[in-house]
Amino acid sequence: MSDPGVPPDIEAKVHQLERLIAEAKAVPLSSSVMVNRAEIDGLLDDLREALPDELAQARWVLAERDEILERAQGDVDRMLDEARQERDRLVSHEEVARTAEEEADRLLDDAREHARQIRLEAEDYVDAKLANFEVVLTKTLATVEKGRQKLRGRVDAATLAEDDLAFEGDLPED
Fold first, then answer.
1. Percentage, residues of the chain above pLDDT 90
2. What does the DSSP assignment read for 84-124?
3. CA 137 → CA 17, 33, 147, 165, 167, distances in Å?
4. Angle 122-127-130 (CA atoms, 0-180°, nearest 5)?
5. pLDDT at res. 50
6. Is the dihedral of CA 134, 135, 141, 142 positive or negative?
7. Nearby residues of 125 by Cβ (< 8 Å), 6 or more positions away
8. Among 15, 23, 90, 154, which is disulfide-ready with 149 (CB 3.0 to 4.6 Å)?
9. Is 35's pLDDT higher than 60?
10. Per-domain residue ranges for the chain?
């Protein structure tokens, strides 16, 4: 039975070596056998001559395999580094976006609060102005009413003069 990976000349030499050992004379009271040293040395030399090409090829294949594995490992390491960098970049962008969104929300809240304060101050200002206007209108209305009554003869002139002076002192300053 021949091994498909072993060249025929090497396989033949191994069979010869096996046959020599199988046919060798047994040493009495031992499991050892006697073989012809010259024959064995000749077969071993033949095997050595046949093996170097195959061994060199096998060593080359192993070296090539190791080189391919090293390159593949280098590629894997490089891809992992790139993936980590991309992940870090994306996480960083996500963090920046989240921080920007939080800042935008904070600015909107601040602007809304500021607008509410301005609106309240404007309402207070308008209310104060309307209150002053109401006072002025009330006094003006009272003066007009007294003037009408004077025209009808119901109020004396001294009371009307006093009211005019009091009214001029109550006018708001702008």
1. 32
2. HHHHHHHHHHHHHHHHHHHHHHHHHHHHHHHHHHHHHHHHH
3. 137, 143, 15, 16, 11
4. 125
5. 77
6. positive
7. none
8. 154
9. yes
10. 125-170
Here the tokens at position 4 are 């498909």
Scanning the structure block, which residue is given the tokens 């600015």? 107
* 8, 2 contact by CB (below 8 A): yes
Here the tokens at position 8 are 């025929």
Beta-carbon contacts of 171 under 8 Å, excluding residues fewer than 6 positions away, are 136
What is the distance between the alpha carbons of residues 132 and 173, in angstroms, rounded to a whole number? 10
CA dihedral (163, 165, 169, 173) positive or negative: positive
CA separation for the pair 24, 26 (Å, rounded): 6
| Interval 149-164: pLDDT, tens | 888 876 555 565 666 6
| Token pair recorded at residue 131 | 């209150």
Residue with tokens 């102005």, as numbered in its chain: 129
37/5: higher pLDDT: 37
pLDDT digits (tens, 9 = 90+) for 83-126: 999 888 888 888 888 888 999 999 999 999 999 999 999 999 99
CA-CA distance, 92 to 100, in Å (whole number)? 12
Q: What is the mean pLDDT of residues 132-156?
A: 85
DSSP-derived pairing of the beta strands 25-26 and 33-34: antiparallel
Residue 18 sits at the vertex; the CA angle it makes with 12 and 19, to the nearest 5 degrees, is: 90
